[in-house]
Amino acid sequence: RKAFLQSSEFVCCLERLSNLAMGNTYNGGTTKGPMMKQKEADEFVATTNFTAPEVKALNFHFSQLASAAASGQSLISRSDFQSAVGMKSSTFVDRLFAVFDHNGDGAINFKEFLTILSVLSTKATASEKLEISFKIYDMDGDGKISRDELTAMLRATADEHQLVLDNAQLASVIDATFQELPSAAGQFIDLQAYSSLVETHPMMLSQFTLNISSLIAEQTAARQGAA
């Protein structure tokens, strides 16, 4: 069935990406296998929002999904990542993957995997989610979101959710978004302007929240059974 976006519905369109939290799976790693040492788990605790038992449970889950690279490191590819998050091939998936593939090697290890889950978890702060979401929209990394970048992300959002959006409607949505931010001067949205938009529409960040408590409980039980 057809669904059309009005000019005031850009934020609603973004919010619908909260479906990203459904059907997740995850990525590559530094430690293959379920028996992570306590010292290593503690190191991850210091850099994420997870406790040591949660880190160990997620490492167990990761070890079931990752493939060994030539280097011996366990990794997940872009295509595996796409399957993991249950989304179509889209600009949004590409950007999410690229932002967290810190070393740009085309794969994600356990550290990068855990960083993704930490930022997407319910434990992450709004400021953490704001920073990552801005990087996802800022495709060329120049510190601002252009009309072209916003257009590409909105098109990806519409395609992901099978929304019918012609070029005129898309332009109308983009115009309305920039009009809401006079400081954007009709061309770019910087981090300050984006923060203002998120403050007005906090549900924009809902698409970057993943409740993984049930997954952690599941993997904790599985890990204890395998011990």
Question: Can you characterise this structure?
Answer:
This protein is mostly helical. It has 11 helices and 5 strands; from the N terminus they run αααββααβααβααβαα. The strands form 2 sheets. The chain has a 3-stranded antiparallel β-sheet with strand order 1-2-3. It has a two-stranded antiparallel ribbon with strand order 4-5. α3 crosses α11 and α5 packs across α7. The longest helix has 14 residues. The N and C termini lie far apart (50 Å). The N terminus is likely disordered.
Can you lay out the helices and strands and say which pair or pack?
Elements: H1 10-15, H2 38-45, H3 52-65, E1 67-68, E2 74-77, H4 78-85, H5 91-100, E3 107-108, H6 110-120, H7 126-137, E4 144-146, H8 147-160, H9 167-179, E5 188-190, H10 191-200, H11 213-226
Antiparallel strand pairs: 1-2, 2-3, 4-5
Helix pairs in contact: 2-3, 3-11, 5-7
